[in-house]
């Protein structure tokens, strides 16, 4: 916890914050976004079970105080991370997202689950099976070979491999969804 809080309201201009606030309050007048509203907000409908689990994990990483709702500050922190965060900041966030059980390491099953979910959401065909892809990542970046990826292995390994970095960056489906929403918000002016 904690690192995502570095991305705060300050990183968005006053004008942008105002637009985001309007969008947020229009979609969510109570000021607290539930998981159901979150999915509606991002237009995520008819998800498979694994995609739903992925989005739920994403929701949980945005819900920084774990109260089951995303409030406006958490929403802004999430958006500024997705829209403006640097590579390091994003990788730390991915790590938290992928470490489903919060053990501090990503094991093979967690990675496989995430890759399958991302593929299901994106709906694109891939040459490599999710299993092979997971194994390839572990072969490349599980440096001490203990079958788990530590934060260090993950950060180092991904940053030093252009292909993995590009794949991971593209795979955060939320980015383009948020960009789409962002475009709409700007377009309202
Ligand atoms: Ca919350
Ligand atoms: Ca774990
Ligand atoms: Ca390891």
Automatic annotation (TrEMBL):
Which Gene Ontology molecular-function terms are recorded? calcium ion binding; calcium sensitive guanylate cyclase activator activity
Positions of the EF-hand domain: 50-85, 86-121, 129-164
Q: Which UniProt keywords apply?
A: Calcium, Lipoprotein, Metal-binding, Myristate, Repeat, Sensory transduction, Vision
Q: Give the UniProt entry's GO cellular component terms.
A: cone photoreceptor outer segment; photoreceptor inner segment
PROSITE patterns, per this entry? EF_HAND_1 (PS00018), EF_HAND_2 (PS50222)
Mind listing the GO biological process terms from this record?
visual perception
**What residue stretch is flagged as signal peptide?**
none
Pfam families the record matches: EF-hand_7, EF-hand_8
The molecule here is called Guanylyl cyclase-activating protein 1
Q: Does the keyword Repeat apply?
A: yes
